[in-house]
Input
Amino acid sequence: MLSLKYAAVLFVAGGLGTTARYFMGLLSLHLFGPRFALATLLVNAVGCFIFGLTWEALGRYMFSEAVRIVALAGFLGSFTTFSSFIFESYVFGSQHTGWLLLNLAGQLGLGFLCLYLGFMLGRLL
Output
């Protein structure tokens, strides 16, 4: 069960992840300018690296499941959800290539469809 203390730790970790994402975006804009989507690309790449490192290191050194959840769902969940998408795709792909392709197509296809529907609804308001 989720305790108030645990929820507060997740809240703080999420705030730190959001702040880190914001400052990494500012740094990217400062270094590279507004070309392409480099800020998002950089955040997503760093997030995937940190996810893999955290998953392996926390598992290897037997940290509790709560520590892993705070690091991955709290900090990285607000830093970038892309890292979770890539991790899940990797897990599905290691089980069966079909699941990998279904996850990729489903996530991207549904994401674009929902974005489009949101645009359409927004224009009606």
Q: What stands out?
A: The mean pLDDT is 89. The helical segments are 4-32, 38-60, 65-79, 82-95, 97-124. Residues 4-32 form the longest helix (29 residues).
